[in-house]
Amino acid sequence: MGPLIDRRALLATGAALGMAPALPALAADQDARVRALLAQMTLDEKIGQTHQPAGGRQKALNSKIDATALDLVRKGGVGSYLHVAGAAFLRELQRTAVEESRLKIPLLFAIDVVHGFRTLYPVPLAMAATFDPEIVRATARMAAVETAVSGLHWTFAPMVDIARDPRWGRIVEGAGEDPYLGGVMAAAQVRGFQGEGPSSKGLAAKDSILACAKHFGAYGAAAGGRDYDSAELSDRTLNEVYLPPFHAAAKAGAGTMMTAFNDLNGAPTTANTALVRGVLKTQWTWPGLVVSDWNAILELINHGIAENPVQAAALALKAGIDMDMASGVYAAHLKTAISQDPSLSPLLDQAVTRILTAKMRLGLFDDPYRFGDVEREKTVFVGPEHRAIAREAARKAVVLLKNDGGLLPIAPSARKIAVIGALATDNLSQLGSWKARGQVADVAPLLPALKAIAPTGTEIVHVAGAGPRSDDETGIPAAVEAAKVADLVLLMVGEDFDHSGESRSRSDLSLPGAQSALARAVLAVGKPVVVLLPSGRPLVAPEVLERAPAVLATWFLGVEAGPALADILFGKAAPGGRLPVGFPRATGQSPTYYAHVPTGRPADPDLAKDTVRYHDVDIGPLFPFGHGLSYASFAYSDLALDRDNVAPSGAVKVSLTIANTGSVAADEVVQLYVRDPVASVARPVKELRGFVRVTLKPGERRRVTFTLAAAQLAIWSPEGWRVEAGKVEVMVGSSSADIRLRGAFTIAAPGKAREPATAIPTPVSVA
Ligand code: NOJ
To answer: Of 263, 293, 567, 667, which one is the catalytic site residue?
Structure first.
């Protein structure tokens, strides 16, 4: 028999593009067990392993596990179920597989745990706004514990798709527009879910679950931000922007990946051999399990590249899709496909090997029940420890977009506060779009939290006024009356949870429903107004973003939304989140991103000049990538580079001093950007290559040092990652548009790098 994992001998170029996989190989005895098992399997049993039916619907987990389903399990016809949950239920289902099927192969149980299982925490875009990989890791770890306790082994997360078009509803599920930030957040989540660390047992450790980086490889580039639509990308953009977060996830040890629904330059990903088998499995030598997206194998017919399901099955298997999520095409048609083309047979063996290997890595062959724990289910969900993590995450995710006149934190002189907007009491929305087992009753709401924290005697009233789901303006006069008698207005307008997410693309990024009218009427009263802006994407709302003095981007914050917001509003915590994606000035500016290339005619404010801009809107985003204010102020000084010249394989230490010049303790996100000003191809005007979130007391100063490798400037080329000789500009600042310090060094000679520049994390120390 040939090699079980199709790690073909690497071509010279493959080695240049590849890397050592962080997912450890199986121990020799485990590998032998997998081989021995495979040798015993019938064709039907092998195909059974590739079959992942839905065990229920998203809102009715387990509902499809009936007598017929159990019979199929007994026949070895199922490898995995998705949309199932519950320690007791899954124990029984697993028992059927390991006691009543011929080969006793355990099932893999999967579910979408995207931002929490029962203890929901902020949506992924908000988690990216924390710019804090440690809290991201901690929340994923907490989610893994709850998921594992409920008997599940595998989450379909992290979603690591780069999203540069806010019209795309799924922007809420990822880390935004930047591949470096995306890679760091991807790796942090993988480590959290899988529990890997130097001293842990990795995937076989208690409470570890398999992570699934999705949706490989350019789902986020859907044309026009329309979900599922084609991605039309240059190879350079694919390799430099869209693939690096997957590479980072692979390097962090992600056990599985899911392919995208859409096509890339006309090749549907589910059948894209060059991308999945070629890049992911061969060049990157990543040894994990690839699952299709929901029904995507059957949809190859709609894509117009397969005439029938038999062809679709053959194409997907050739491409390297190991497991068929929900379409049933492998189960029903792979046998025919193999009888027509026996060369598919070793490919099936490879797919089954990857599936059995994943089960082996989790330790399921030794203890198929090791995950579920009925007793812990009762205590661990939404326990105080988990609430504390969710609250810290929620506080850290809030972004202060503006704060004219220092309106925030709320002054004690605000004795009467009017909370206006239907969203202020929409607790369901705080759960976000992927709720898993989240319950609205677990959400700590805003109004009681405000009342609990406000100085005694503060009067807090709520008037809905208008909401995002209706054009009804009849409630607006009451809101205006409340504003008139208030000292301060908290106006909560934005999206609800269902405006973003899968298939929730919007052609217009303005405030939905009658909220614009509400905002205009309330602002016209002339009282101080703080806007709370919940959303799963950047919004275009000039009526509040330009007119209100203070605005907080509040996303959907999970079960601790109310207390976290109250903490920020009353200054118990200072906001320190940063935008992981810029807010455009107009929907028609999309897609727009800070890391664009310069063009021959850079944008100029002078409309008499013909430059790269729109005539009817100012240049650039309203709030740029990396933007976020604080209740404190920070001074940057003393930039130093430890060398002027660096070898292509070397690194430069970039140091600076950051000081809190304000009067409260607060967090600053120090951001490192680079630019290659003269290269063989146009390079972005600025690219993030490092960041750190530091907490500083008033007057406190710290020395921050980034270690930037020359390889992090590498440019993609079909021959491999190329490091070009020449000058590199270094910029350090508080956002992509607020650069405080500049320096430069020279890469002394050309060289080669081994992996995507944006997938290399920059070590940073704070002294
Ligand atoms: C389709 C979505 O695209 C994917 O992200 C998700 O994991 C699956 N459905 C399973 O729910």
So the answer is: 293
